[in-house]
Design a protein that fits this description.
The protein is an alpha/beta fold. The protein contains three helices and six strands, in the order E-E-E-E-H-E-H-E-H. It starts with a strand and ends in a 9-residue tail after the last helix.
Length: 126
Amino acid sequence: MSLERGDVGKLSEQSGEAARRATMVGPGNVHRVSGRVDVDTVAACLQQMLVELSVEGQEGQEGEDRQAIQFDLSAMEVEGSVALAMLVDVTRQARLIGKKVTFLSASEELRQIADLHGVRRILPFA
């Protein structure tokens, strides 16, 4: 496992056939989560999301923008409810440190799993 910081935050874990990663993809605090999130990869993905969450506000951002972070889930593949548990933990950690987190482009499958577990109302899906 390696962690590289810079303009692009990246965590790669060699797990079977592919690396899992969370990568910053745009200006400000938008981070893309891509790859399969399952029991083998959830810990590494959660760790990277928490690292991104704990980073101080990005250069050029002021006020509330410094306290807001968005995770683009459009390229995340869901395997069971482990991804849901990860998002609940990220949401909880964000609240503890006074940041606002938003999950962009969550799949319908993930939203349905959140409904089944009764946690959709606490997850900040956009």
